[in-house]
Amino acid sequence: MNDTGFHCGYVAIIGRPNVGKSTLLNHILGQKISITSRKPQTTRHQILGVKTSATSQVIYVDTPGIHTRRNTAINRYMNRAASSVLGDVDIVLFVVQAPQWTEEDETVLRRLEEVDAPVILVINKVDKVQEKSELLPYMDRLMSMREFEKAIPVSALHAQNIVDVEAAVAEYLPVNDAYFPGDQITDRNMRFLAAEIIREKLIRELGQELPYTSTVEIERFEEGDTITRIFATIYVEAKGQKAIIIGKKGARLKSIGTKARKDIETMMDGKVYLELWVKVREGWSNDERALNSLGYSTE
Ligand code: GDP
Ligand code: MG
């Protein structure tokens, strides 16, 4: 029974890779739970971000973008994660990057055809649009493509108009009791978030040089009274990739480790000891069994 007028629901954040979905979520939550970068494959797992106020709880589902370029096991996994949420949510935020409209946006739009939930169009990166007069015709064009409840221009990175997105979400939130405790902001544990932070530093440090197939596994995660000890392995597919990540005299790996440790310390609000290893595991990204053992459920 809900006689308090409390509202609670699920909101999917969808869109092609790189439009700023994870950045938007982090700014809504006021805390980084989803890693971001310029590279398309940054978000691989579905992650929940929970925002609770006195009157409502919004559960945002950050999805990996829908990938169409390569039909590998990892892309199939990411597409499934992105598509499966659409049937179960109360509201969809469809994020696009102004003033672009690509084939990949078109693919996402097509997936929305089967969606009954209200769809709010979030037009991101307006800070990058030089000619602001381009925005209105762009918005009109998108609004003619399907029924959107609203179109909201934002800059996720500069936290502009984010409150408008939250206000629009609040309008469509169903009456429900809270599903999560009020102080919980994500469904993922520290161990998962630590691995993600390491992966973010790896992506940012290596840019285009990073093998698309690297992944991070936490071997040990020991929370002590004064310090948390984390032992992690970065998996790559070839020896050459291992050398690139380690860098000259280990300088690169050290820099990745230092940056990751600082972010993990902020997240955990305490001291962290981080040890990083790089290992070669051949062919994992196209191997369903290896994916399972690395925590990507391919069922
Ligand atoms: P996702 O793949 O959709 O989750 O995209 P990310 O959140 O990882 O963002 C992709 C890139 O776009 C990152 O480099 C972000 O810093 C950048 N970005 C996100 N939002 C904005 C924005 O509003 N303005 C600008 N200029 N860059 C943004
Ligand atoms: Mg993302």
Q: What would you note in describing this structure?
A:
- The chain has 299 residues and is α/β, with parallel strands linked by helices.
- The protein has 2 domains: 166 residues, Rossmann fold (3-Layer(aba) Sandwich), CATH 3.40.50.300; 104 residues, GMP Synthetase, Chain A, domain 3 (2-Layer Sandwich).
- 33% of the residues lie in helices and 22% in strands.
- It is built from 9 helices and 9 strands.
- The strands form 2 sheets. Strands 2-3-1-4-5-6 form a 6-stranded mixed sheet, with helices on both faces. Strands 7-8-9 form a 3-stranded mixed sheet.
- Strand 2 and strand 3 form a beta hairpin.
- The longest helix is centred in the last third of the chain and has 18 residues.
- The relative contact order is 0.14.
- The mean pLDDT is 87.
- The protein binds guanosine-5'-diphosphate and magnesium ion.
- Guanosine-5'-diphosphate (GDP) binds next to helix 1.
Bound molecules: guanosine-5'-diphosphate, magnesium ion
Spans of 5+ residues with little confidence (pLDDT < 50)? none
Residue fraction in strands? 15-25%
**Helix percent band:** 25-40%
Overall mean pLDDT stands at 87
Number of helices: 9
CATH fold description of the largest domain = Rossmann fold
Through-space gap between termini: 35 Å
Q: Which sheet architecture does the biggest sheet show? A: 6 strands, mixed
CATH class of the largest domain: Alpha Beta
